[in-house]
Amino acid sequence: MTAALLAGAAFGLGLYALVRALFPARPGLAAGLAAFDRARAQETARRSERASPGMEEIGGLRARVGRSLARFYESRGWEQRSVRADLALLERSYEGFLATKFLLPAAALIFIPALVGYTALLGLGGSLTMPAWLGVLLAAFFFILPDLQLRQEAAQRRRDFRHVVGAFLDLVSMNLAGGRGVPEALMSAAQVGEGWAMIRIREALANARITGQTPWQALGRLGEEVNVAELRDLSAALTLVADDGAKVRQSLSARAASMRSRELSELEGKAGERSQSMLVAQLLFCFGFLVFLGFPAMIRILVT
Predict the structure, then answer these.
(1) What's the pTM?
(2) What is the pLDDT of residue 4?
């Protein structure tokens, strides 16, 4: 019964794919807008790759599959802004990420005949039911795994980026107190430090000088690219009060202090969670030790 259901599902899926291939759907408004913005997005991606020499480079089958999937997503209007922001923060390729999401489940499904042969060698029979379900579960797991890894790594790196932004605000405030203007203070503060986050800020400011944009517009664009709200807020604040150095200095100092306070509260919350987990581990260890001490006595009582 299960084999018949799987065969019917596979036949229906193939028939649906054939119909969609012969009679493709008309592109909607989202697809039209995506096609209209494609040139600008490609130019932005090329500019980002030039500004970030460490951007991941892919080639071969993975590159072809990734480009095909990226065009398919664009034609359907699937923007995936959060995924793109995480990838831009980690300096990874969007096409490479899509290719990984496709190739890993495909590899899991390809190994179903190998699973059938392995179960046959173990004497579990030559049925396709268990290997098919196992392959489907592995494919689903490998499809979700890149997203989970991406979110975890991006969250950690975004916290580090926020910490650097707080230090950057302090440096800008110090330069403003020394009598420099806002653009000069931003560039001078960005020259301090060689971490990856400070390098991203410095490259964004340098590209803004080349393209004729203001430094706060470059910071806002970088905040949109990597999804860091502090940079977007900084850009909005500098846009409003860039002509008054004293107000800018006070605003930046207040923002840096609030960021440090929030970071300290997050660290205290994590420390409390780890303390609770350690307490639970200690209780489990004590319970296991008590079971270890009382087990011989309980066995002797039960035997006698």
Answers:
(1) 0.64
(2) 66
